[in-house]
Design goal:
7 helices, about 160 residues, 2 domains, mainly alpha, about 50% helix
Length: about 160
């Protein structure tokens, strides 16, 4: 897996899923132009290339990619040329998916974490998601194997 032994050991002994730390991205080279960028964004200008050209006129020496990244974090709607499959419709929300009233499934990484935990320590929403996923016979078989493996590792005192 490419993880250090200490990392694996701390994950194995963790009481809950270890969430990744969110890295705060600073403005860096864009810091002197922050007010200008935010004012242009408030006016409705969400064209990264146009903003980059305007910043170049003001003396900005950075690349268009830096302005593009800054703008992507602050967009209110998808970019004009975003492929349709990545756009969300006005009626689609994060809590419902195309399958109807069911909640969205958990990520593969969280699924793997939930599978190695004791079934009684998992919350109801996750239990329901696992039940939905386990309707497939191969997935149910894999779930059982993972749980048996976790029990074996737990007995060995990792």
């Amino acid at each position: 897996m490419g993880l250090a032994r200490g990392t694996v050991r701390s994950y194995a002994h963790a009481q809950q899923f270890p969430e990744r730390a969110v890295r705060e991205s600073g403005l860096g080279i864009l810091a002197p132009y922050r007010e200008y960028l935010e004012a242009r964004l408030a006016e409705g200008n969400e064209n990264a290339a146009a903003l980059w050209r305007e910043l170049q006129d003001c003396g900005f020496a950075g690349s268009a990619k830096q302005v593009h990244r800054w703008l992507n974090q602050r967009r209110t709607t998808p970019a004009k040329f975003t492929p349709h499959k990545w756009r969300t419709g006005p009626t689609e929300t994060a809590s419902t998916s195309a399958t109807g009233p069911f909640p969205a499934l958990i990520s593969p990484r969280q699924l793997a974490w939930r599978l190695v935990q004791a079934p009684q320590s998992i919350d109801t929403a996750t239990t329901e998601a696992l039940a939905r996923i386990s309707q497939d016979p191969e997935v149910a078989k894999g779930r059982d194997l993972v749980r048996r493996f976790a029990e074996l590792i737990g007995r060995c005192g990792v």
